[in-house]
Amino acid sequence: MIPPSFEYHAPGSVDDAIALLSQYGDAAKILAGGHSLLPMMKLRFAEPEHLVDINNIDSLKGIREEDGEIVIGSMTSENALIASTLLQEKCPMLPEAAKMIADPQVRNRGTIGGDISHGDPGNDHPALMLALDATFTLAGPNGARQVAAADFFLGTFFTALEADEIMTEIRIAPQAANTGASYQKLKRKTGDYATAAAAAVISMSGDTCQSASIALTNLGATAMRASEAEAVLVGQVVDEALISQAAAKAMEICDPAEDLRGDAEYKTHMGGEMTRRAIRAAMQRVGGN
Amino acid sequence: MAKTQVSFNLNGQDVDVLVEPRELLIHVLREQLQLTGSHIGCETSHCGACTVDVNGQSIKSCTMLAIQAQGATVMTVEGLAAGGELHPLQQAFMDEHGLQCGFCTPGMLVRGYRFLQENPNPSEEEIRSGMAGNLCRCTGYQNIIKSIQTAAAALNADTGSQAE
Amino acid sequence: MERQEQLQGIGCSRKRKEDPRFIQGKGLYVDDVKLPGMLCGEVVRSPFAHAKIVSINKEKALALPGVHAVITAEDLKPLGLHWMPTLAGDTQAVLADEKVCFQMQEVAMVIADDRYIAADAAELVEVEYEQLPALVDPHKAMDADAPIIREDLVGKDEAGQGKRTHNNHIFTWDVGDKDATDRAFESAEVTVREDILNPRVHPSPMETCGCVASFDKVNGSLTVHITSQAPHIVRTVVTLLSGIPESKVRIISPDIGGGFGNKVGIYPGYVCAIVSSIVLGRPVKWIESRIENISTTAFARDYHGVGELAADKDGRITALRFHALADHGAFNAHAQPTKWPAGLFSICTGSYDIPVAYARVDGVYTNKAPGGVAYRCSFRVTEAVYLIERMIDVLAQKLDIDKAEIRRRNFIQADQFPYQSALGWEYDSGNYAPALEKVLEACDYEGLRKEQTEKRANGELMGIGLCTFTEIVGAGPSKACDVLGVGMFDSCEIRVHPTGSAIARMGTITQGQGHETTYAQIIATELGLSSDDIQIEEGDTDTAPYGLGTYGSRSTPVGGAATAMAARTIRAKAQKIAAHLLEVSPEDIEWDVDRFHVKGNPDAVKTMKEVAWAAYNNVPEGMEMGLESVNYYDPPNFTYPFGIYLCVVDIDRHTGETSIRRFYALDDCGNRINPMIIEGQIHGGLNEAFAVAMGQLISFDEEGNLQGNTLMDYFIPTFVETPHWETDYTVTPSPHHPLGAKGVAESPHVGGIPCFSNAVVDAFAHKGVTHVDMPHTAFNVWKTIHELGLDS
């Protein structure tokens, strides 16, 4: 359980980091929190020749509000998300979900940008980003570009991030009025990936669902948006029967891999159950509860 | 592979070590710096036996490169007892039978030390979630929880008497 | 009273003597040992479960700077060390000899300057394999067309434990009156039968296994620091293997980070490290990773059982018939007393007065890692207790008798002790019925059953589990038990120094049980010296008397008895010295806590401290000076601790998650030496039971690839999953133990597992479910829910 040798770089700026990535191409990997990459290297599943440690780039850390958007630096740790009063107030689903990730020590190192960029369908932030309609700023040698979460996750461990790019920021609209959100995660134990998880953001107008955004974790090759489940709810007075219909629609898009957490049938059912719970909890929270 | 000098503050003392970039902090602490209190239990950052305090945060030193500790303030279990006097948490582990084989204990103590600063007056449930990154096979956790509660009371009484 | 308290002797919750070093990071575990010139070993392992080794190319690895050697079976052959004997009478390949028989089997060891270079070099060893079909399912092991796993045993009708009938058969062991049992089943009013699995699991102590071997070429002596629960046995085996005289082999078990049965056996990594040190003349360290630990060193269980009970219509059991197919992996390396291929499985009649019984176990080889150790239990006792405690619930359901009531009807009664069981054991003492009532009352059992009825009416799933178990621990009488021919006694040597402090050494070895604390309490009470003045040392074979080690809850029953007996010899001598000092005859003085006084004259006193001083300058004529004793205690019987456990679970019918609402454990381990430590042991054992029942599983795919060998998948409960434990006790002393004590630390594991299972099954009892196999993961429980349509 010893990582192979590599050359270590600790750039102080995004530009320096990009220059290193451009120089070394596929031979380089970005080291963020390290809790996915270093175990992979210890198992010799990953053997990068160069590690570009971006922990020293202060501009990548922190949470702020800018032009009516919440901007989260990609190197913001999970525990920083949990502690953020700005998020607790304007995007409460993120701190709620971050508490369910790994354990306290790992959350001190693990970062939101690393979690998203890894492209692991078991990670929690991808579904959260999809449900929140987040936008990612990807900085590369030719400047920065914005990519919507919906366009980012291309396959297992495969994202829109190019080898010479770094995710620098995550932009999220603050939670609108009359909106509730919830992330529901079923896992075997602390520190495990989700057996199944669902994020739901629901806006209500009186008794009627005005908009719904639902996304699923670890139920397919990538995190995915359950659009048909959303469509079941929008424009309707939502009752248990309708929630069940939405859950059934969410189950239809599930194509989970069998592993020790369960077989495809179980995980699909749990995808439905987590969807049900997330919708219920989100609706309960509409109006700030 | 060429070695790099890394300097950091360890338990109140400045130290310099020469490391390969790939060397893990836990190995450098244990093997170069001879502080064998922190242990290796799983190597995949699940067990917490290697927990140390870096810049005021609990981290798992099996999943951090030593080279990343450049300039950091690091505390291990060996740094808990100040001036030879046991930290109230150490005393509480002894009083409440919070350890058996002792292998997970240094990680528990270092995490517990930080946890009680994050949450000086925790409920049992908060202790359970705040300590969830540290595994123990011997105690069934119950007496560790008691130890942390006892230490919290002792620390709070200390703070109280200082304030008076 | 005050003098008694000052001693900190038997019965008090003395704080632990070992804690100060552990809480300050000053423990010395094997990986903390660093010797001058020390090298590191890394094992090259097989990626396949079954394959021929076509070739091994070491050249690239040897070319790496800092690499000293790469050893393979070919290198060990000239030394006769490529195979080693197991504790079970089989042999095991130290390094794979022409073929590999399980995934992760040891193929080569690289020796290098440090662990980083060793890891790199291990990657560079090129091994070419030719894959063979793997045998994974033990039920297919004895099929006519099953792949042959052990080529070396072909044509041999014996593999160390009696006759075998197939190339993959290891042994058949049986006990009891088969004909009488069969007749009882034929004439029974009611019978029940169930397939019951104890899945393959792993003890996974927080510290993995490892050693530092150091051969001194000048003196021809070998020192090995090793994580061993049985250091003296290791010494004997090392001598038998290496030919180095036992007087020149020193085994040191330093602080051990938990054992739980994982550290009883002798593993290939140890042998390779020792051989490398002998060949290279430098210390060699080998420490396994967690993945290696879970994958290779000593799994437990893998017992595929069939349980049958016969009874009358009132639920009185008239006969028991058990069979188990035991999957021992590729080499028979289970750790049992040598003559007991199925350990003490014959305790399977449990706490019940069953007139006739028959049990049989067949061991088979498969392409899996070797082992079959006792994971926090006495040998195969968990498997036995699981079978009877599950089956009595199955019987209760069949007859619609309450699960507490059926136990009442079958308990061995207090006046039946010492009790002769149908399978040949003599239970020393027990008092089950009142203990059951105590627990039922404490938990309001009737109220729980009422609540359960209401919940069931609402479609909710609530289960109440009971387990009323009897264990057999403290191996053991040497007439019954030995390891490689060495009787299973244990030992204690005490030396009282002139100024009245003492040092004592035992053949056992603590791994968290707190021996340094509790043994001193025994001596304190027996000798009237303060615990704090008594130093306890274990684990160094150069200084400690020979003993068989710590496993199977044998420290208190055997080592503790040896300690009491050694102390009593010293006190008898002290009495003579005191009489001499007081100028009376020894019969005229009596013992009083920490001193002798003349009968009828409480002022004529000599304290034990005064006697200790006199032992070195003023003894009766003809008496040897000094005040010391050594005792090798061969117990007349095992001890039979028991417990009454109750568990309440609530099951989420949508996700299959089980939450433990309550767990109440009453234990009876006879007289209690340190209640604080006992309670701690119970907590820990219950948590390991929880882990086994609810999540642990070593599973394989069809090709024999191990699935989930990191702590991501292998279930070790964290603070969050672990329930709150409630403990209670009764005291029924052992009549034959000098202190009336029994073993305790394994009871919670043994009794806890069936209690959890019984609770989970009970949640579905109203739907006709009589059994589901462990582990009761959310996924597995959901499958039951889903099949029954309870989730809709």
Q: What would your notes on this structure say?
A:
- Chain A is an alpha+beta fold and 289 residues long.
- Chain A is built from eleven helices and 14 strands.
- Chain A folds into three domains: 7-53, Uridine Diphospho-n-acetylenolpyruvylglucosamine Reductase, domain 2 (2-Layer Sandwich); 60-172, Uridine Diphospho-n-acetylenolpyruvylglucosamine Reductase, domain 3, CATH 3.30.465; 181-285, CO dehydrogenase flavoprotein, C-terminal domain (Enolase-like, domain 1, 2-Layer Sandwich), CATH 3.30.390.
- Helices cover 33% and strands 26% of the residues of chain A.
- Chain A is globular and about 60 Å long.
- Chain B has 164 residues and is α+β, with helices and mostly antiparallel strands.
- Chain B contains five helices and five strands, in the order ββαβββαααα.
- In chain B, strand 1 and strand 2 (13-19) form a beta hairpin.
- A seven-stranded mixed sheet of chain C has the order 3-7-1-14-11-12-13, with helices on both faces. In chain C, strands 9, 10, 15, 16, 17 and 18 form a six-stranded mixed sheet that branches. A four-stranded mixed sheet of chain C has the order 21-31-32-35, sandwiched between helices.
- Chain C has 792 residues and is α+β, with helices and mostly antiparallel strands.
- In chain C, helix 10 packs parallel to helix 18 (747-762) and helix 17 crosses helix 18 (747-762).
- Chain C is globular and about 85 Å long.
- Chain C has three domains: 2-26 and 490-633, 2-Layer Sandwich (Aldehyde Oxidoreductase, domain 4); 35-133 and 204-296, Aldehyde Oxidoreductase, domain 3 (Alpha-Beta Complex), CATH 3.90.1170; 416-473 and 638-792, Aldehyde oxidase/xanthine dehydrogenase, molybdopterin binding domain (Aldehyde Oxidoreductase, domain 4).
- Chains in contact: A-B, A-C, B-C.
- Chains B and C meet through helix 1, helix 2, helix 3, helix 4 and helix 5 of B and helix 2 and helix 17 of C.
